[in-house]
Amino acid sequence: MNFIYTVFGWPLGWIMYACYLIVKNYGLALILFTLITKVLQLPLAIKQQKSMMKTAIFKPQMDALQRKYKNNKEKLNEEMMKLYEKEHYNPMSGCLPSLISFPILFGMIDVIYKPITHIIRPGSEIIQKATEILTSLGMNTGNTMASQISVINAIQANPAPWSELGADFISKAQAMDFSFLGVNLAATPTLTPNGQPMSVYLPLLLVPILSGITSLLISIQSQRQNKATMGDAAGGGMMKGMMYFMPLFSLWFAFQVPAGVGMYWLLSNVLTMAQTAVLHKKYDPTEAVEAARAAEEAEKEREREERRLLKEKKAQGKQLDEKENEKAMSAKELNAKKIAEARRRMAEKYGDVYTEDEE
């Protein structure tokens, strides 16, 4: 796992380093870092919301396919793939923001555990030497992840044994203040005080608790929005399970790592809730569904109007044909009368008897 933390921690460490250079305060740098990472993830969040909106629009078609092929899973999958292709929809696209958040979390663990590597940034030789001095002083607990935090704490307590690391390094280590709003961001929260003063223990304890609560609020927010969009399909057993799994995971996880990681998780959750509310308002699936229905109804009305006009046109054509027939019949009768009149005059002229049958 250390390798994974290091891989993701390297790029995030540069972001944290830049933030620290700007604000010169560890807690404020963490807030700025969280804001930057959320902004970088914003395009993915927008894509996820648009994907949800698109899903809501053609959900009636999916429901129809599920009813039609409920006893034929293979055919259902085939028709679903055709529908996805037709709508240019990737069902996995909405999962990307969630997947991205975990590498960031892993990288954040590395950044918080290694303030010397990512913020002070001396050479690797100095980092190695600092670890050796820590061990020689009997302060190395065996937790390699936390060794850099232990080095900084030890230097701040007594810089004398660390003089061979150089005045510049010691000065930077002494300047690092992990305290923010009464919380030591380099300390790991515990369920019991373990001899800590309540002024230290309680603020630390609040970090995992608030992390779990905000994670639960995100789950509730997501559940409500999905239910409004997808109906009862959003309330399935798996969705309900995930609703409680993530808050419990957040609570447990925040007790395993320094409070800085939990603080990042907490801040990220708050920003996520605000971001979700704004994006849901801008790309509201419910409004999109109503607009799609209105467009569909307008199209049906247009087709009905076309059929009506075509029917009227046919009826008018039929009436026109009848009038033409009447006109043609009238001309024929007129000709017949003229012929009959001519025959009658001829009969009178030559003394013949004219009868109507002769027509």
Task: Describe it.
The chain is an all-alpha fold. It folds into two domains: 2-283, no CATH class; 288-358. The protein contains 13 helices and two strands. The chain has helices at 2-23, 26-57, 59-68, 73-87, 96-113, 115-120, 124-136, 147-157, 167-175, 198-230, 237-254, 259-282, 285-349, and strands at 179-180, 183-184. A two-stranded antiparallel ribbon has the order 1-2. Helix 1 (2-23) packs across helix 5, helix 10 (198-230) packs antiparallel against helix 11 and helix 10 (198-230) runs parallel beside helix 12. The longest helix has 65 residues, at 285-349. The model has no long low-confidence stretch (mean pLDDT 82).
Summarize the structure.
This protein is mainly α and 359 residues long. It has helices at 2-23, 26-57, 59-68, 73-87, 96-113, 115-120, 124-136, 147-157, 167-175, 198-230, 237-254, 259-282, 285-349; strands spanning 179-180, 183-184.
